[in-house]
Every structure is written in structure tokens, then in C-alpha cells.
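Input for the complex:
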Amino acid sequence: MTRTGWIRWPGLLAFVAIVLLVAGFWFLLLDSLVKRFIERSGTSLVGAKVELDKAALSLNPLGLTLVRLQVTDPDAPMRNAVEIGRIAMTMDGLNLLRRKAIVEEMTLDGVRFGTPRTRSGAIRKRPLEPKPEPRSGDVIALPTLSVPDPKEVLEREELQSVKLVETMRTELAADRERWQKRVAELPDKQKLEQYKAELDRVQKTAKGGGKDVLSGVLGGAQAAQQAVALQKDAARDLDAIRAAKADLEQRLAQWRGRLEKARTAPEDDVRRLKAKYGLSGAGATNVTRLLFGAKLADVVDGLVRWEARLRPILQRVAEHRREAGAREAGAREAGAEVVKPIRGKGVDVRFPERLPLPDLLVRKAHASVELVAGTLKGQIRNITPDQHILGMPLTFDFAGEKLTQARAVTVAGTINRVNPAKPADHVAVTARDYALGATELLNSKDWAFHLERARVDADGTLTLEGGAIQGRVNAGFKDAMLKTSAPAGVVADALAGTLADVRAFQLHAEVKGTTADYAVTLASNLDDVVKDAITRRLGAQLVRFENELQAAITQKVSGPLQELQKSVGGLDTLTNELTARLNLGQDLLKPVKSAVPGLKLPF
Amino acid sequence: MLRTTAKLLAVLNSETEPGQIGLGFALAMIAGFTPLLSLHNLVVLLLVLILRVNLSAFLLGLAFFSALAFALDPLFHRVGLAALTARPLKGLWTALYNSTLWRIEHFNNSIVMGSLLVSLLLFVPLYRLSNTLIRLYRERALAYVRRSRIMQAFTATRLYQYYQTYSDWRG
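Predicted:
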């Protein structure tokens, strides 16, 4: 049999058979392929194992169901960061053919955080992220809770008041010497007496007259001239004395002011030492920071760490633009965008679309999240790594009412990467009657604080914009039970006892700074409660400490202070001296009488 | 088992004209260079089955060119990226990008575009070269191979006898 021609018609049947075989095979394996794809890409993104029990694809309607997704916490490989019992979604088939996974609706059931794992989810040995170093201002000084002996305190401490008085004494001594020299250089009483005597003589000479009227007039004029010259000299000297007196009075006023400050300096020393060695307002404020500062910083640190982990998922474009070279930059100029796929070879060049859509988008996800307090239900909208294409941020809002351990909880927020250069994330949480279980607040070498239980009403917000972080929490605690383990001591026992008696308190916290370096400010009426209680319990001791300290400092300072006062008095004496000289010279400047009665001198 | 294998070999080697073998190689180059699960490879498969193409040559060529593709991927990427980012072609690519069929083809991937362009460019030259080499082989080397001891031993096997029988039936 000979065959002619290039067409082999049975080949068409073979083609159909092969295609159907491959399609069937692919369809049978598809569930496993999807499962493997999710596990591999998830593991690569998170940096720890992502495991899925089962994936089931349905064709009509097109949808996917995932059973038990576990995402390991990279920092704690034996725990899951999140575990989702079931995920079901319906997909847009046409867009799927265009390599766009557009999920119209997704349901997440049984979302839980921090669940234990049966085996480690670490994928490779990697150093744990180091705990952040304490930020400046975060190193909280423990209040000194023992009332020491004032004598020991004074031996240890340098008193600012004594130092001040000594400095003033030295300066004043030098100043006095300087002024004494200056006053000595000024015309003294003797000089002024000389002027007076000379002036009298000149006036007498003028009155004596001449043999005749002419010689009398000429003699009078000459005398008047001499008198005027004398007066000019005297005036010049008196001006010098007057100026010196004004300067000296100004200087004296300054010294009197400093002397007044030196008199109050011992009180400043008492206040400073009381704050350092006793429980003052500042010391009591430290109690709130001790109790809650570390815990709050941990929560904020955790949120910042997870934002950094989720960033590659939330913001794919910026990452891959950084990796693109000059050629890709040329492509952007031509109106195309080069996007490196998360996995695979080559690069995909993205061109303008008539109806732009992200490659992955979940329009709406309904989720139920299981917390210790109960189940929160809510929605997440617009989940996509390409928000700049969608033009809308990711939003979420969850609420729970009549929960097992709370009356109501709401969590809402946005993750905005619409403009990748200006990321802005915001979350707001409210809780009403939230029952807090046993919580360790602080566990250091000397101190341990535990909040055994409390019911909390809280409102909190946190905003991350660019690299800046800003947050606020207002919380009211009631039915609280605080347990303290403190070192032995009267004041420590008082603090422990006081905290044990506390049943309700308010807490206000603010966070401000950058994600790398932020400050936590805490305020609470707990500080006043602690301060009042300790003051009540230790009132007498603290008052005695303060009085003894005051007396000891006053005794140390009074002697030098009296000497200082005397020295200031010495300057006063100089002022009086100058005043006396001025008084003496006052008469010198009175107008001179003419030798000829009735003759008015032109000068 | 031997008969089945012989039947299969007969089918695979049923088209023995140099052009049929050359076409098999050329089509194998397209399928081998480009990602196997691309849409255009369905067209290649259809052509391979519906045209009188030597299937052995196609399968052999597929294995060879698939192995070669690993080494040539960087070249394909550069060629593909250059083509996709060429300004004069932006309009064409944009139109194709908005078409579902072409999105399934994944033409906007640099490896797919580059490997397809290279294989299409080399299609005709490879076909002609294969033709020439096969003719030269048949004219100059075939007789020597047939006389070799390995070939003589192989032709004495039952497998070859069954193969020869089925080949004769197909004509």
C-alpha cells in the first residue's frame, strides 16, 4: 500500500486522544499541583513552612477550596503565625485565562493565631531576629525603694548649694577688691575739700576788689574765670564718682539677686535628693513604665515586624522595580512595565490594558477569627500586591459582640499602598469589658509584676506612614488584680501591698517616632495611687527624711551664706562712701557770685 | 511485548523521506526551545500528528533541543526582552496583550518570546540542513552502517524481524 500526500488524517484522532489524555491527567493532578504551588510560594514568601492539608478545584462554578492552611511563625517554628481551617473562593474564569487570579468572594473559616504545631516549621537554620536594643529613654530607672540615712546621702552627694555659695564667695571677694581699687582711684574727700578751699579763696579775692572800679572789675573777671575752671574740674571729678556709684549700685543689685538664689539653693538640693532617694512624683511615674512599658513596646515591635514581613506581598511593584536594570527602565519609558514574577524564569513585560486589573485580587473576603475572647467576624476588601493598579487600598473591619470573654471588640483599618512611595497603614481597635487573663508584665532580676486578671475597656489607634509611627491607647482597667514580687524592704513591701490593693486604674499611652526608633510615653492614675498610698504608709518616714535632710543641708550652708552676706554688705559700704563724696561735692557746683554787685557776667 | 514494541517502532519510523525527517527535527526545535506547556506547542503537536512527519525524529529532536534550551535560556531572555521592549512594536504588543488567546500564550514573557522567535528564525535553515545531511548520510554512510557488526547483530533479532514485517505491511 502506498501513501501519498502530506496529510495523515488518523493523526487528527491521535491529536484529540493525546489532548484529552493530557487534559484528564492534568485535571486529576491539578489539586496536588495547586497544593504544591501554594505551599512552595507561601514558604518562599514567609521564610518558614506553609502547609496545606488539601486543595480541591471545581470547574463549574470555577472555584477553589483549601483545607487547613498553616503558616509557621518564622520566629517560633513550633507555632503557627496563623492557621485557617477552610478557605473557599469563587474565581473569574476568563481572567484566569489571562493569568489574572481575580477572586470575587472568599470565605475564611476558623482563623486562629499562635496555634501549636506538631513538628517544626523552620525551613533552614537561620538566626532568630535579634531582640531590638532598648531605645533611648526606654532604660527605665527602678525607683529606689528604701529611705536612706540623710548623713550617708550628704556624704555621697555633692550639694549644689554649697558649691554655689563657695563660687559666689570667691567671685565676690575678687569683685570687692576690684571696686576698692576703683573707688581709691576716684577723687576722694580730701580732693573735694581742696576744690572747696580753692573756690573760697578765689571768691574772697574777687570780693577784695581793686584801687579803682576798673581794676576791681578786671580782678573780679579773672577770679570768676578761675572759679569757672575750678568748677569744671570739680564737675568732671564728680561725674566720675557718679558713674562709679551707678555701676556699683547695679553690681550690688546683681549680687543681692544672686544672694537670694543662694538662700533658696538648699531647698533645691533637698528636692533633688528627695526625688532621687525617696518616692517622689518622678519615681512614682516610673512604676507605670515598669508595669506596662515593656509589654506595650513588645506589641508595637511585633506589629512593625509583621508589617515588614508582609511588605513584599503588599507592595510587589517597588521591590521589583528596584531589581530591574536600564533596559527595563527603557521599557518603562516606552509605556511598558517589567515585572519579575515571584517564581519562574524570564521576566513578564506588562503592557497597558483596556481594563487594568492586578494579577492577584481578592475583592471581598469574609473571615471569622477565633480569639481567646471569642470569635470576630468581618470582611477584608481589595487584597492585592498591586494596589497602584487597582487604585484602592486594602481595608478590613471585624467586630464581635457577646463574646465569651468580652462584651464587644472591633478591629478596623486600612493598608494603603496605592502610592507605593507613600505607604500609609492605620488600625483602630476598641474593646469593651475584655477579660484579660494572667499576663506577665515584667520579670527582671529584682522585680516581677503579674496582672492576674482585669476587665479592660480600651481604645487604641496605630498609624504607620512612611517610616513614621504614631499611636495612642486609652485603657480603663477594672476588677484588676496585680501581683508583685519585690526585694525585701519597707518601701518595697509598701509598693507590693499598694499594688495588690489596686482594683481599678486608667492608662494612657502614646507611641511616636520612626519604626526603627520610637518613644513610648505612659501616664496613669496608678502613679498617683501608688504615690498617695506609699506617702500614706510611709508618710512619717518620708517627712523625717526630708526634715533631717533640710536641717543638715541648712547647717552646711548657713556659715558660708552669712559670710557671703557680709561681703555683699562690704560693697554697700563702698556705695555709701561714694554717696558721701557726691554730697560733699554738691556745693562746688553752685553758681559763682560776681565781684561787682549788679554786674552780670557773660559767662 | 516484542510485537507491540515493534509495532510502535514501525509507526514511529513510517515516514522516512528526508523532508519528513527534517520537518520532524524543525518542529521539535520549536517545541524543545519554547516552554513545553505553551499554547503554540498544541499547534506544533497537531502539525506533527496530522502531517506526515517522522515521529522518531520529532521525539529525538525534542529531547535534544529541550536539553539545549537550558543553555540557551539567557540568549532567549535577551532576545525576547529586546523584542518586547522595542518601541515600534509597542502598539502590536499592546493589542495582543489585551487579547485572551495571546495572554494564554504568555507571549509577554521574555523566555517564551525569545525562544519562539529564535526557533522560527532557525526553522527553515534547520529543515534544509537536515534534508541535506540525511541525503548525504544515505548516499555515503548508510551502506557502511548496514555492513557494521552492530547493525548485523541487530537485524538478526526478533524485534527487528517483527519491525520489518509491520513496516512492509504499512508500505
